[in-house]
Design a protein that fits this description.
By secondary structure, the chain is of the alpha+beta class. The chain has 2 domains: 2-75 and 159-215, no CATH class; 79-150, no CATH class. The protein is 12% helix and 29% strand. It is built from 4 helices and 15 strands. The protein has helices spanning 79-82, 112-117, 122-133, 211-215, and strands spanning 2-5, 11-14, 19-27, 30-35, 44-47, 84-87, 92-95, 106-107, 110-111, 140-143, 149-150, 157-163, 168-175, 180-181, 193-196. It has a 5-stranded mixed β-sheet with strand order 4-3-12-13-15, with no helix packed on it. The chain has a 4-stranded mixed β-sheet with strand order 5-2-1-14, with no helix packed on it. A 4-stranded antiparallel β-sheet has the order 6-7-10-11. It is globular, with a radius of gyration of 17 Å. The structure holds iron/sulfur cluster and FE2/S2 (inorganic) cluster (FES). The site of FE2/S2 (inorganic) cluster has 13 residues, from strand 13 and helix 4.
């Protein structure tokens, strides 16, 4: 399985990666992903990266006419090189700042940072760990004081995300450590979960930086509340 980024063009996905649409849904003060529309399953498919396709989430070639600049601006440093560490009383939290504003770090008892700072309480600590594990952008890793990292291995898949609470279409969640190859042939550090931009407006291309919320990106399939 692989995702290949084309210069100023789409994502070429090969290897039969399962493709789903997912909806961000609030439940109390936290969020879950619900199934959206069924999408076709193919060995190879091409996903829009510029945000202007007429057949989302797939590419229709519009990037060739709209002057899309898909230059990759994201750092090639590893997660450990980029991340900062917040030290709590019984848990630490690594944070590389790559946020897709999907809000899974928000738990009923607070967000992952607040909960880490209050990790002397076991309930806060376990909620902080869940908030970090559930971050679909791979921004957060909760670490025990003995160095153990709370990380999970998802099944490989690609999720096309809608965020009706915010009235926008959101990122592409890439799960399960699928390699992502830059236009120049270099493979980004492979991580279990990352969020790729599909609105074309990120300032950290190819990764989502939540710019879809500023531009109110709508691919035409945002469920109406
Ligand atoms: S991308 Fe991660 S850090 Fe950003 S809001 Fe979502 S869960 Fe929180
Ligand atoms: S989809 Fe989030 S910045 Fe483009």
């Amino acid at each position: 399985m692989k995702i290949k980024i084309l210069k100023n063009g789409p994502y070429i996905v090969t290897g039969g990666v399962p493709l789903y649409e997912k909806i961000i849904v609030p439940v109390g003060d936290h969020y879950v992903l619900q199934d959206g529309r069924a999408l076709p399953q193919k060995e190879k498919y091409i996903l829009c990266r510029c945000g202007e396709t007429s057949i989302p989430p797939f590419c229709d070639g519009i990037h060739l006419k709209n002057g899309f600049d898909g230059s990759e601006t994201a750092s090639r440093k590893t997660y450990d090189e980029r991340a900062e560490i917040l030290k709590g009383p019984d848990l630490d939290l690594m944070d590389d700042g790559r946020c897709a504003m999907a809000r899974f770090c928000h738990r009923d008892r607070g967000d992952a940072w607040e909960l880490t700072e209050r990790s002397y309480n076991p309930l806060n600590k376990s909620e902080a760990i869940i908030g970090a594990i559930e971050c679909p952008a791979g921004r957060l890793i909760a670490i025990e004081k003995n160095g153990y990292r709370h990380e999970i291995k998802n099944k490989p898949c690609i999720e096309i995300v809608q965020d009706p609470e915010k009235g926008v279409s959101a990122a592409i969640f890439v799960r399960g450590g699928i390699p992502i190859e830059s236009e120049d042939g270099q493979i980004y550090e492979t991580r279990d979960s990352v969020a790729l931009c599909r609105c074309g407006k990120s300032r950290n291309i190819p990764f989502c930086d939540a710019s879809h919320l500023i531009s109110m990106f709508d691919d035409g399939n945002v469920p109406k509340n």
